[in-house]
Amino acid sequence: MELQLAIFLVIGLVTIVAAGVFGKKLGIAAPLLLIIIGAALSFVPGAPDEVPADVILLGLLPPILYSSAITVPVVDFRRNFASIGALSVLLVIGTTFATGLLLWTVFPALSLPAAIAVGAVISPTDAVAATAVAKRFGLPPRLVTILEGEGLVNDATALVLLRSAIAATAGVVTFWDVLGDFAMAVTVALVVGLLVGVITVWVRSRLRDPLLDTAISFAVPFIAFVPAQYVGASGVIAVVAAGLYSGHHAARRFSPQMRATERTNWRTIQFILENGVFLLMGLELSFVLESVQEQDLSVAQAVLLGLLITALVIVIRFVFVGPLLGWLRSQERRSARQQERFRSMLEERMPDGELPARLQRRVDGAQKRLERRDNDLKELQAQGLGWRGGVILGWSGMRGVVTLAAAQSLPDTTPYRSQLVLIAFTVAIATLLLQGGTLPWLIRLTGIQGTDAAADRREFASLLDDLNEAGLAVLESPVDEDGEDIDPEVVERVRGDTLLGASAAWERVEHEGDTETLARSPQHRYRELRRAVLQAEREALLEARSAGSYSSRILSRAQIMLDLEEARLEQFDDSV
Questions:
Q1: Tens of pLDDT along 80-111?
Q2: Phi and psi at residue 479, in whole multiples of 5°?
Q3: How many whole angstroms separate alpha carbon 248 and alpha carbon 71?
Q4: How many helical (H) and strand (E) elements, i.e. helices and strands, does the chain have?
Q5: In angstroms, rounded to a whole number, what is the distance separating the alpha carbons of residues 485 and 494?
Q6: Cβ atoms of 234 and 159 closer than 8 Å
Q7: What is the pLDDT of residues 520-554, one digit of tens each?
Q8: Could you tell me which of 75, 72, 76, 203 has the C-alpha nearest to residue 543?
């Protein structure tokens, strides 16, 4: 049995890589190919059958969520928090009760709480397939952020509703009990996640070894998830909070090597896990079909009911997205009016002459908030979703592996349990194949435009101008660590950025063992001064990120550029 499992693991890994390669050539998202391949493999003798729900919900879900959360820009998440919250909370609740009522009507032996529990299973979307297509076709970054944010948060809403509904099947649970449970689960999870984020970032920032740092980062999602689940909070929210905090503070607290290593390792883990869970979904097909008891409801009837619910959840999402877009546009107009009133009030109350230090700090803070809100509004208006974005957003409601795992966590005493699992499986597979398979065609049909490459290049060049201005200011009156003026020749070398690695290496050979002379060498002083310039540029970058004056993709590109330059300099400092 162990040998068979090892063989299937190797086959699975090779299949994931092959799907990634051929998916790009065929223009099909890898998750869709993997579901089909997994379904075919499920009928092979000796193939794994049922994957325990805890393996997915406790073992795979935390790292999948964390790997996505650390890459989501907090600025973009904050700007789109209203739409993300509406889709991941209100839409999930509405879908849960609508599908639950339908199931309650169809299955007479199914209690209303049990039916709502199944509705909670079906309600959360999986954004992996949607974002894979969206990024490949260059959809607007705002739309991608909303889909990613929804996929991060809506699992928490669905799992909390599932827990409350299962509890209701064993006793009386009021609406206020469910609301209180939800508020507690979210609040405590946020506290746990942020606390884990603060502590782990502090610990990791004091480790200068990227290998040790990466090893700790692998444990962070579980460090956040397990305590939150233990106290009855949402482990999903805790992981997302820890991931957002870690990703946001990495630019300031971690070394370039640590950031580069973490990016590479977590991208690899994300690729394997996100695609692996879709392969697992396909592998469970034969088991789900065999478990259905025909005397209760046939396989064909369960599949047809699953297709009916698929149509229902698609309609519900479109009905919800339309008013949501109208509300977002009205909020943007309302925010613009508020900004004008706030700006006028600030200008009217601004006293003449020099202000006391305390009052000046308050004025500076108000002006920074005004600038940040202006930038937020400018970015949102520049990336207005429009009807094309609404169509894509409405059609991106694919379900995923969490739906299947949550269905398998239903109590064994639930009436029609095997049929309900098959219904949930049908909804997940149907939405992935139907919506995911046709999403590229719909993107081309609507003609929705993503980022403008020329505009991105102009914005990137403008950002580099700002960073260079901050960095070159260091060269106006450069001094070394002892306060002595630096040779103008060294300053010019830094200004031209003409450091040669070979020169630095030979310099180390010539002064081997003489650290004092080496520390006064032109190459070492060059690196110190160049590092000071990079630090000033990084501070300017973080300030621009805080103000939201540039788009997150441009800021991320500039950060990687600075990381590469700083990492290159640090390669020559291992013996100083």
A1: 888 899 999 999 999 999 999 998 888 888 88
A2: -135, 160
A3: 9
A4: 27, 0
A5: 14
A6: yes
A7: 666 667 777 777 888 888 888 888 888 777 878 78
A8: 75
* Closest to 172 (Cα-Cα) out of 232, 111, 109, 234: 111
The Cα 388–Cα 64 span in angstroms is: 29
How far CA 121 is from CA of 165, 230, 236, in Å, comes to: 11, 21, 15
Contacts 24+ apart (CB under 8 A), 492-498: 493/522, 493/526, 494/526, 494/529, 494/530, 494/533, 497/530
Please give the Cα distance from 396 to 278 (Å, whole number): 17
**CA 404, 169, 302 angle in degrees (round to 5)?**
40
Distance from the Cα of residue 557 to its chain's centroid: 17
Task: Outline where 27-169 has alpha helix (H).
Answer: 30-41, 53-54, 61-69, 74-79, 81-85, 91-106, 112-122, 127-136, 141-169
Q: CB of 320 within 8 A of CB of 94?
A: yes
Give which of 424, 107, 398 is closest to 285, Cα–Cα.
424
Backbone angles phi, psi at 485, to 5 degrees: -65, 145
Question: What's the Rg (C-alpha) of the chain?
Answer: 27
Residue pair 126/151 in contact (Cβ under 8 Å)? The answer is: yes
Quick one: tokens of 316? 């519900």
